[in-house]
Amino acid sequence: MAKLELINLNKTFNPKVIPVKDISLTVNDGEFLSLLGPSGCGKSTILRMIAGLETPTRGKVLIGDRDVTHLPPGDRNAAMVFQSYALYPHMNVHDNLAAGLKLKKIPAGEISDRIQSVSRILGLDPLLQRKPGQLSGGQRQRVAVGRALVRDSDVFLLDEPLSNLDALLREHVRAELKQIFDAQQAPVVYVTHDQTEALTLSTKVAVLNNGLLQQLDTPDRIYTHPANQFVAGFVGSPQMNLLQVPCQGTMAIVGDYKVRLANLPSTPPEVVLGIRPEHVRLAKPSDAHVLKGKVFLVENLGMFKLVSIHVKNGEKEPIVLRSLLPPDQDWHQQELELALPLESIHWFDIKTGDSLARP
Amino acid sequence: MSTTAPTHQPTTTKPSRPWLQTLLFWGAIGAIVVFSLAPILWQVLTSFKVNEDIAAIPNIYLPRRITFDHYIELFTRRPFLRYILNSFIVAFISTLACLAIGTPAAYALARLRPPGGKLIQLGILLITLFPSILLLQGLLEIIQATHLANNYLALIVPYTAMNLPLTILVMRSFFVQLPRDLEDAAKIDGYSTWQMLVHILTPLTLPALVTTGILTFIAAWNEFIFALTFITEETMKTIPVASAQIGGASVFEIPYGPIAAATVVGTIPLVILVLLFQQQIVQGLTAGAVKG
Amino acid sequence: MTKGNSIEARDRRAGLYLLLPAVVLLLLVFAYPIGRSLWLGFFAQNLGTELEPVFVGLSNYGRILGDSHFWQTFWITVRFTVVTVALELALGMSVALLLDRAFQGRGLVRTIALLPWALPTALIALGWTWIFNDQYGIANDILRRLGLLHVGINWLGEPFTATVALVVADVWKTTPFISILLLAGLQSIPQDLYEAHALEGANRWQSFWQITLPLLLPQIIVATLFRFAQAFGIFDLMQVMTGGGPGGATEVVALYIYSNAMRYLDFGYSSALIVVTFALLVLAIALCSLFISRSRNQSGLN
């Protein structure tokens, strides 16, 4: 186990690799960092630079205070779980697990000890003599994780390990992974485009877009205090309502209605108003600013209904607002009165997307 | 080409006058079979005929009596076993050498982007078009200078070189197809490039190795002009050369009986190879040629 | 480019080392002889000079220009190539089309069709020599029985018939190669193109000309290119069946070079011949490549 540090990592554009700009972060022992972002955001590039499969154009990678930036992957003592598992097809499970250990000249006794304990944790015992081709997707995934665990690594790297599993299995394995990595100390870097995975598994989340770090924070704060519009819109399902609205004085104009603006140094001509559907609620008599609209779409999410409402906007296109409402009523085509609690509204700069004020 | 459309299935259309079409079709197939087999079969038949039958006019097609004399003569009057051995050693060793040298080179070109790689690839493609005759004189000089005439090496080295282009091209296209993840995982496990090539990648390319190995073996076995020129000592000759030089020592000027027997013996190993590995041979030919 | 310690630089160096043995061997066997012939072509080294090289500048090349024997072998080679390649394409195409259908025993037929290519040319040439034997050969016998002949043809003893015999033998041997290539090409043409064409009212003949041939053009050209290059060096067949005769009627370029080098020991001249043949080959390749890339653009595949 050793601290992982990325200092000013840059990878310039080349046809094979997504570029990445000025990435600096630290992952300490016991921490689990997710690199979260849409495809093409550069998260895999960063992971591969940590692993040594790509060389950064600029910047350094330190593992345990050792500068490994130019060391080949085998010398970094990092272990990786690949999206496609990358198991050696012509070796059986046991040999797949042992391969890396044999290369490090670890004595046979210790190899079999380690394989035994990992195999027990992951339930691989009945599979040890089989070849990857004879295993199911889920079983192969476990072998891939096992291959990483069996080495005494300083850093664990996982590249979208759950994306090839079907939805039910994914949830189950996600829980297993959490338990496994909670039980060990080495820092973990986990690449995913699925925000649920990132939020449930990690101690820290780094949100990336277009090669740039958008926000590095705990899962909680990423959700409740997004640093910019991108993070706000990417994290949280169903997606946050992001309304581009003009401002006048101390009010933001939402369609035919007004909402009090947050305290800003000056009033911008336009602003982006962000509010999560779960915070858009039915208006109470005590509410000051109320929006009226008609439901045009109801999506049943089981626990709630996701209701899409057209808010009148004079002669222009109505504004779409989405709200999570109780599931026991039929909301079709209803005229509703909604309130946007000020303490739940995020305000974003219309040009930069940066957060202007948060609850 | 579009990969969204299903690839071409063999046509099974319904013809307008079924019986005529079917008749023509099977007739054509029959013609192909007969055409392909005829010369070989004729040699087989001739090899078992007694000399009178061979020289009979009008021709006798099926032997009236079966004789093994010609075969016996092959192995007793001439060192034919020796010729088989020579052909086999030369073909086998050059095949092994070709795979051993060509596979790492193919991997380098597929994955490692060595300096000058594109140029080398182009050169390799061009080389496949060189006829042997152009190389004859230069190689002869080298062989004479190194006193390698009548030595297996005089054939093994050129054969290895001649089959290297096809080997490299086919193996390269195979390596390109392998998922990169496998190499990444191996690197992280600590494999060096060479170790990875030997322990992880080459076992996965076994089908391609078999294919190119067989094509190389066939080419080496069949080669004539170098074998004719570089090997002049009787006991070192390969089958094609020795057979072509079977001189008359019988009643006829040219002993067609033993020659036929020689043809049969010289081609049987290849016939067996083709029968066993026809799938691989076809793959290898198309992979190598489509590259052009 | 290979300096430096980065992972990519190390990979490139490793690639160089892995490539080296192959490159060295190829240079030795391919580049050296051509280069040597280039050098020696400026010398005379024959029995007249007691096998010592004597510098003669371009006189060998001058001699080639005026050497009608050489140009005769050149035209014999070209004519032979054109005829055999044309026949092989036609036959190969037919075989490929037939094998493209699914039928019982297709695998077996394909294997049988493959055999001629796999067998040693020299040995099968012996077989053809016997078949075309003027007295005992079954070529004559079959033609006689079919009533097409009365008197046996002296196949290998007459220039025209000797050429015919050689063409038959070469076409027999090489058609499998062409048909395999074309078959692979056929099988890569998506079925729905034919279906769409049929819906528009096309019959099979039209589909062949309008869909199959254009899409197959790259393969056809590659195959032709290969064959042309090979044909420059065709040796085995002629050497065994006719030795270049009768009277030089089937003497191809390779045979001429061979006899100059091995029989007449006229090494300087044969080197010049090698260089000229090589140049002509390169020219042919260049022209064909041009043609290939232009046709590729036209058929809209790349």
Query: What portion of residues of chain A is helical?
Result: 10-25%
The topology string of helices and strands of chain A comes to EEEHEEEHHHEHEHEEHHEEEEEEEEEEE
Unreliable parts of chain C: none
End-to-end separation of chain C = 32 Å
| Rg for CA atoms of chain C | 24 Å
Question: What is the global morphology of chain A?
Answer: elongated
Rg from alpha-carbon coordinates of chain A = 24 Å
Going by helix content, strand content and strand pairing, the class of chain A is alpha+beta
The helix tally of chain C amounts to: 12
Structural class of chain C: mainly alpha
pLDDT averaged over residues of chain A: 90
Lateral strand order in the biggest sheet of chain C: 1-2
Number of strands of chain A: 21
Biggest sheet strand line-up of chain A: 6-7-8-3-9-10
First and last CA, distance of chain A: 38 Å
Biggest sheet character of chain C: 2 strands, antiparallel
Largest interface comes to: B-C, 107 and 108 residues
Please tally the helical runs of chain A, counting DSSP H or I stretches of 4 or more residues: 8
Shape of chain C: globular
Low-confidence stretches of chain A: none
List the helices and strands and how they pair.
The complex is a heterotrimer of chains A (359), B (292) and C (302).
Chain A: E1 4-11, E2 20-27, E3 32-36, H1 43-51, E4 58-63, E5 66-67, E6 78-81, H2 93-103, H3 108-122, H4 137-149, E7 155-159, H5 167-182, E8 188-192, H6 195-201, E9 204-209, E10 212-217, H7 219-224, H8 229-234, E11 241-248, E12 251-254, E13 257-260, E14 270-275, E15 281-282, E16 290-300, E17 305-311, E18 319-325, E19 335-339, E20 346-349, E21 355-357
Parallel strand pairs in A: 3-8, 3-9, 6-7, 7-8
Antiparallel strand pairs in A: 1-2, 1-4, 4-5, 9-10, 11-12, 11-14, 12-13, 14-20, 15-19, 16-17, 16-19, 17-18, 20-21
Helix pairs in contact in A: 2-3, 2-4, 3-4
Chain B: H1 18-47, H2 51-54, H3 69-77, H4 80-112, H5 117-127, H6 133-145, H7 152-177, H8 180-189, H9 193-204, H10 206-222, H11 225-230, H12 239-244, H13 256-290
Chain C: H1 7-40, E1 43-44, E2 54-55, H2 59-66, H3 68-100, H4 106-118, H5 121-131, H6 138-145, H7 159-187, H8 191-199, H9 204-232, H10 236-241, H11 253-263, H12 267-298
Antiparallel strand pairs in C: 1-2
